[in-house]
Amino acid sequence: MHCNPTRRTFLKGTAATAALAAVGTCSVAAWRAEQAEAAATGAVKIQGASLCNGCSSKCGLIATALDGRLWTVEGMKEHPYSKGTLCGRGHGAAQWAYSDGRLTQPMKRAADGSFVPISWDDALSEIGAKVQEIIAEAGPEALAIIQDPRPSGKYYSKRFMNALGSPNVYTHAAACNLSKESGIQEATGAQNFSVDFPNTKMVVFIGRSYGDGIRPSSVKSLAGAAEGGARVVIVDPRLNNTGVFATDWVPIRPGADIAFLLGIANVLVTRDLYDHAFVEQSAVGFPEFAAQVTEYTPEWAEGICDVPADTIVEIAESLAAAAPACAIEPSWRAAFGCAYQNSFETARAVCAVNALLGCWGQKGGALITSSPKAGDVDPVKFPEVPKPAAKRLGDAEYPLALSGTGTNLAVLNGCADGAIQGVFFYNSNAVQGYAQPAKWREALSQAKLVVTIDVQMSETALASDYVLPECTVLERLELPEFIGGKKHYVALRTPVIERIHPETRPCDEIFAGLAEACGVGEYFDFTVEELAEAQLASVGTSIEEVREAGIVELADPGFAFGTPTFKTPTEKFQFASAKVAEAGLNPVIGYVPRLVEPAEGEFSLIGGKQGIHSHTMTLNLEALNAISREYQLERLWMAASDAADLGIVDGDTVELSSSECSGQVAVKVTERLKPGVLFLPTHYGGTSPYLTRAQGFGLNMMDFVPLHLEPGVGSTMSQEVAVKVRKVEG
Ligand SMILES: Nc1nc2c(c(=O)[nH]1)N[C@H]1C(S)=C(S)[C@@H](COP(=O)(O)OP(=O)(O)OC[C@H]3O[C@@H](n4cnc5c(=O)[nH]c(N)nc54)[C@H](O)[C@@H]3O)O[C@H]1N2
Ligand SMILES: Nc1nc2c(c(=O)[nH]1)N[C@H]1C(S)=C(S)[C@@H](COP(=O)(O)OP(=O)(O)OC[C@H]3O[C@@H](n4cnc5c(=O)[nH]c(N)nc54)[C@H](O)[C@@H]3O)O[C@H]1N2
Ligand code: SF4
Ligand SMILES: [Mo]
Fold first, then answer.
1. Is pLDDT above 60 for 26?
2. Are 682 and 609 in contact (CB under 8 A)?
3. pLDDT value at position 260?
4. Which fold, 194-367+562-582?
5. CA of 52 to the centre of ligand 3 (A)
6. Which ligand 3 atom minimizes the distance to the CA of 85?
7. Is the domain defined by 107-175+379-470+505-526 classed in CATH 3.30.420.40?
8. What is the pTM of this model?
9. Strand order through the sheet with 107-109
10. The pLDDT of residue 27
């Protein structure tokens, strides 16, 4: 690693390599001064606004190019998620443009399984012919697309599928936050909420780690609350990196958070510490809930979640004392986004505790805010696509899955049983991340056509018949991104550097080409610039204005503290839901156990993020991969007492095995983990031979998890697994 990047070495690498190399070996300030000096040498400087593609937060950034080459990326001050800062991944992802792992031309799988280059014209016409064949034989509902929503990607993927007549449009959510958002929706009518950190007195995190699963604004707001004296409780089998802001760490048995929450609810109800006005005036189902909750005593909860009953009582009483300026934080993925058989119900239980505390909409409590969207655009220029007649595959079986996301595992099952024959992936590495990779590969091998649009040869690309290369984010203009919250905004990805590889194309051109080849080109007879301009005009701004400002604040949505209007069918907070009953589950919020209980001698396996990686996609980036290797971040965490029992010391190699697979990995022995639990960071175990730094480095947790879907919502149940470990001798 260099400490003093000269202009030459700097240009050989990228802004990110130099930035990350500098961290740890010399001061950032010194590096910045050198950068400024080098930048003052008369090079042509271009600055542009965009949105980071390092993860789904899509933070605002300002990119600077010198003489046409990317020089720095910095967090946009005015953007509500970046607030002037990009996380390490945001800087690392800037390396993508020049990465040696990039896809530079369309590829086709040959008869022997290898990939060979193919021209765009040939790729598109062959894909078009296959799509027509599938429609003729099995109807358009045999086609599906899976995407991780991006500003252009979500619009074009849906329009493309719908134009072909298929309703099968899915997101990544079944492997992220589907259970959580569906649960919150059943209780409150909103899909998410936020904590009012500037005013809160106490906040309880169930798993969610702002210090690892980073969004810069979240870290800043929590730091502010902690400095202001708020009590911050982390409930996690692992003392995660949010610990620096926390007052309490409550180690808990994995998958048992629901018992902890119901224990708190029991204390609030039976000791009459709840908000009577709220439950009487703004909620339905409270009498049934109160009757059921009497069973969930703190002692009962302790037996399940292994948190002492006294701790549960103390936390419940402190919350009641702080109410309404307190909340259980909504969390995101690991604990109950898609993890267990009870994830949906855990999300409802979080909402129930907040309801008992009467903190919905209150200062310092749990806030439901609104989101803006584009207004109507010219129906002649941008014709509406008729709504497909068929119902999306999976919706009947999983009626509680959000309509905007569905369960992408319906595609996996659909390929296996022949209901789905053609699959498209956009910005998605489903094979490596949405369920067991071997199961995805097997299912996709049954399909007649698999097409992946990506920037690198991902594991999903490898399981495809055609791979179409997109240009990277700083090389393209996208549709406007609308951002909700207490205030509303619109921002835009604008190109900052020229297309590096001439055979790559942006999302809009790829989908327009596919549509044309499949016979539905009439729905794509406009440029992304024309649609972006029309959408922005519909909210009173323009490309020019957003480009100049980076982000534009829209009309004030008029957020005010106070009990919100719950957009549920009953227009009230729902302790009981008719839709949940229709799905065959207990309508009243209550206890559901986890599915797979580790037996004697087995461990629970939990996963989680690391600050420098995103999901599976950043592992091959040079600078970020180097950090992982230097600090051996791929290691499996094991509690010190378990390690002692098994005769394992820090750095030993173990074999980890489940019913599904086994693999070897080094161990990190720690006091920061509850005994009986193993923690595996979720970014490792790449298998694509095209991504040489990622391939074979660490283990992928999804390999170990059996394929089974959460009832009602169809989430992937990413932590319903029991594992064994064995020391590998010498
Ligand atoms: N093993 C594992 N599985 C996971 C997770 C994990 O951490 N580990 N996380 C879970 C969570 S929380 C989520 S939200 C989902 C995320 O699900 P995904 O969004 O599928 O996440 P990634 O696995 O990072 O894959 C993103 C893919 O998009 C590609 N890509 C990057 N930039 C571009 C671009 O500009 N254009 C196009 N077309 N493609 C691009 C990457 O190369 C990669 O193949 O995964 C879930 N599953
Ligand atoms: N660095 C980084 N940041 C990211 C992302 C990323 O890929 N990398 N992705 C973004 C996205 S899409 C998402 S969804 C979020 C995810 O954000 P989080 O949900 O915060 O992410 P995780 O790190 O998966 O999980 C948080 C914690 O849950 C704990 N945990 C695991 N199982 C259990 C359990 O059963 N009970 C309890 N109480 N705790 C448990 C883990 O130990 C971990 O510390 O991060 C966002 N930010
Ligand atoms: S949180 Fe980090 S990786 Fe995600 S969008 Fe923001 S800067 Fe990029
Ligand atoms: Mo996620």
1. no
2. yes
3. 98
4. Dimethylsulfoxide Reductase; domain 2 (3.40.228)
5. 6
6. 7
7. no
8. 0.95
9. 115-117, 107-109, 466-469, 449-454, 422-426, 143-147, 169-171
10. 61
